[in-house]
Specification:
heterodimer, A: Rossmann fold, 7-stranded mixed beta sheet, 18 strands, B: mainly alpha, about 75% helix
């Protein structure tokens, strides 16, 4: 009996070894397929958003292939993506990028989820001169390193809350406002903070509280007590989903009254659903909202994208999915304009991108960031017990009027 | 350096109250850790994950339409059995081994629990709503969320209940005997295996209570367990092993210290400040103990 087990074990491990070492090596273009590579977080702490990213990519691949694929040099190609799970771990993401490029022979990359993981992968794609179109790394530092092969379809992080400060100043009759802010100590949130500081300098506003929240922190009570004592016009917060949910919980518990509450990650944290009426009037920055009126030939517009995505995956697409889909549209456009599969030619075509997608206009600046698309702000509004995000800025797309100042807790 | 708290002295009341309420909750978690550390000589790295798992039990009840506060009754019962099971599967193999092995084993449990929670409950940050409202003092200048008051009261009840149980019950006496000298207890007829399993179960149950309370006061996520482990570890270190009133005191003390550090040094230094205090306390105790020529038990 023991011998049989041993024999099977040896057999299995030999088989594993053979399969492991001789796996078919993909090249950039195989037959009628253009192969893209992506490391996304399917497990670990980013797995929810990693899944949104993957679904966004897949939906766009399906749609582009259905609508005739990519036409390069008189031949029609279809997109295909090799995925690896980066386990939400930057070191693992970097390893997988190496593997995609060196072992699988991938010549075109899609980005992972989050600024941190994109930062880990970018040096590798850069070194190997592999163009990468990413949709989920917004940190400003990605665009100041002079990367030539990195292209981001989303607006950089420092733009997230700038619009909100401008709006508050506008509502204050053009005069500067008093700003209290608390940002988590991570790359993304600190970039959002820099944007707010820029906006404050530009508008002559004064920053009266500037708290940096440790990543491990679950409690904002001290920051909020300071806010209560100093009475600022704007409270600006960013700390991913945990920060958004903690903030709303404690703001409502401590009944903190401010004229404007500006934050990030409201949709990622399902704020309106989890906190209901407590989250009402929170102003949130987002890359995209389905009611924006951008159009393209693949998805139509945001409303149609929302419907198609819902039919395919059974939930409404968060902006993380929409921007990921947009990345594929950028790739298709670049391949066709380059009319070649040569990485250098495709890179040059990517750099000259100037197009509209259902997600927004896309045009890359010198650092690779998208300079053509403004951020949108929405405000949580409730009717009865159901709360929804309504776009309030830019005014061109506003579906509701901004409520300013926020009614006091005692009057709600 | 921020002097706001001195300009607006009412903030001192707020800071003290917030710190106390936070500290009591942490003390409950530390209490479980001290118990099993003292009895079994195991430092449980998975403490925070057990807390979060307890929180998810309360959260699951909440999604089924039951008030999450009832989690403080249901979660400890389920967690006790999970703890018992963990003992029978893993911990009993490492009880008599050196500390390093037990740290590795519980570290493994913590990774496994994180991933399982991620798998079962998803990676979203979630909260359970208690809708308990807020108590206000000084015309709304000092606010105390009732959920936090509830947490502190429940924590105190469980802590006192456990102290009485340890004094009066047969199992409690067996646990204390085993903590003092496992070999002697065994010779006198105490089934130490059973005592160990029960101790690990009781610790898990305490984590379950704390987790349910955290689901209504803070947020839940499969990967936020570590801060709870670290905090309870620090509280136990400061209090010293086997010093249960000390655990309560050091929990509250560190909570208040942390809040004041936040106001005076800035939020970014609050956790750093606690660690510096920990180092100072350890250095002081090192000298104090060497003068007394005694050793930590």
């Amino acid at each position: 009996m023991n011998k049989i087990i041993k024999f099977t074990l040896v057999l299995l491990s030999t088989l594993g070894l053979i399969l492991g070492t001789t796996s078919t090596s993909f090249s950039k273009v195989e037959g009628d397929k253009i192969i893209l590579g992506a490391a996304v977080s399917l497990t670990g702490k980013y797995s929810t958003n990693g899944k949104h990213t993957q679904n966004g990519y897949n939906l766009a691949v399906k749609r582009i292939n259905e609508k005739g694929g990519v036409k390069v040099g008189g031949k029609t190609y279809k997109f295909d993506i090799i995925y690896y799970d980066d386990e939400s771990n930057a070191g693992r993401a970097a390893q997988l990028a190496e593997r995609l490029i060196k072992q699988d022979g991938v010549k075109y990359m899609l980005g992972p989820y989050s600024s941190g993981l994109t930062k880990a992968i970018a040096p590798i794609t850069e070194e190997n001169k592999i163009p990468m179109v990413e949709a989920n790394g917004a940190s400003r530092s990605l665009f100041t390193k002079g990367y030539k092969y990195l292209f981001a379809v989303l607006s950089p992080a420092n733009q997230y809350l700038e619009v909100a400060i401008d709006l508050a100043v506008e509502k204050n009759g053009g005069k500067g406002v008093k700003i209290a802010m608390a940002f988590e100590q991570d790359a993304f949130s600190q970039d959002v903070r820099l944007g707010v500081i820029d906006a404050a300098e530009r508008t002559g506003s004064e920053i009266i509280i500037d708290d940096k929240l440790p990543k491990e922190l679950n409690d904002m009570a001290a920051t909020l007590a300071k806010v209560k004592a100093t009475n600022p016009d704007v409270l600006a917060l960013s700390g991913h989903s945990k920060g958004a949910l903690t903030a709303i919980r404690q703001i409502s518990e401590m009944q903190v009254d401010v004229k404007m509450l500006a934050m990030t990650h409201c949709d990622a944290s399902k704020l309106a659903k989890q906190h209901g009426k407590k989250s009402e009037y929170a102003l949130c920055a987002a890359q995209w909202h389905k009611t924006l009126t951008y159009e393209d030939e693949f998805f139509g517009n945001g409303i149609k994208y929302d419907k198609d995505f819902n039919a395919e995956y059974g939930y409404a697409p968060p902006y993380q999915a929409a921007e990921s889909s947009a990345a594929l549209l950028v790739w298709k456009d670049a391949f066709e304009r380059a009319n070649s599969t040569d990485t250098e030619k495709v890179r040059d075509a990517l750099a000259k991108t100037d197009m509209q997608t259902f997600y927004g206009n896309i045009k890359f600046g010198s650092g690779g960031q998208n300079t053509a698309k403004p951020m949108v702000l929405f405000q949580v509004r409730c009717e009865g017990d159901t709360c929804e995000n309504k776009v309030v800025a830019p005014t061109k797309w506003a579906s509701a009027k901004l409520v300013h100042p926020i009614p006091k807790w005692s009057e709600r | 350096m921020d002097l706001l708290i001195f300009q607006v002295p009412i903030l001192m009341v707020q800071a003290s109250m917030d710190g106390l309420l936070l500290g009591i909750l942490f003390a409950l978690i530390a209490y479980g850790m001290a118990l099993q550390w003292g009895v079994m000589n195991i430092i449980n790295i998975a403490q925070g994950e057990l807390v979060i798992l307890g929180g998810y039990i309360a959260y699951t009840m909440y999604t089924m339409g039951i008030h999450p506060a009832f989690g403080v009754i249901v979660a400890p019962i389920i967690m006790f059995f999970i703890g018992w099971l963990l003992y029978k599967l893993v911990i009993y193999r490492v009880v008599d081994r050196d500390l390093f092995i037990s740290i590795l084993a519980t570290f493994g449990i913590s990774i496994l629990t994180q991933q399982l929670m991620n798998f079962i409950f998803g990676a979203d940050v979630v909260v359970a709503q208690s809708n308990f409202g807020t108590t206000m003092f000084f015309e709304g200048l000092v606010t105390l969320p009732n959920a936090k008051i509830f947490s502190a009261v429940v924590s105190v009840i469980f802590a006192i209940g456990l102290v009485i149980y340890m004094r009066k019950s047969k199992l409690g006496r067996a646990i204390r005997a085993t903590a003092q000298n496992a070999r002697a207890a065994k010779i006198l007829g105490v089934d130490t295996e059973k005592v160990y399993a029960a101790t690990f179960g009781i610790n898990a149950a305490l984590c379950g209570v704390a987790g349910s309370l955290i689901s209504i006061t803070f947020t839940l996520h499969p990967y936020v367990g570590l801060p709870y482990t670290v905090r309870s570890f620090m509280i136990v270190i400061v209090a010293g092993l086997g010093n249960l009133p000390g655990v309560a005191l050091s929990g509250m003390g560190l909570g208040v210290f942390e809040e004041f550090a936040d106001y005076i040094l800035g939020t970014e230094f609050r956790i750093g400040a606690v660690f510096i205090l920990l180092v100072l306390i350890l250095v002081y105790r090192r000298f104090a103990l060497s003068r007394k020529r005694e050793y930590l038990k």
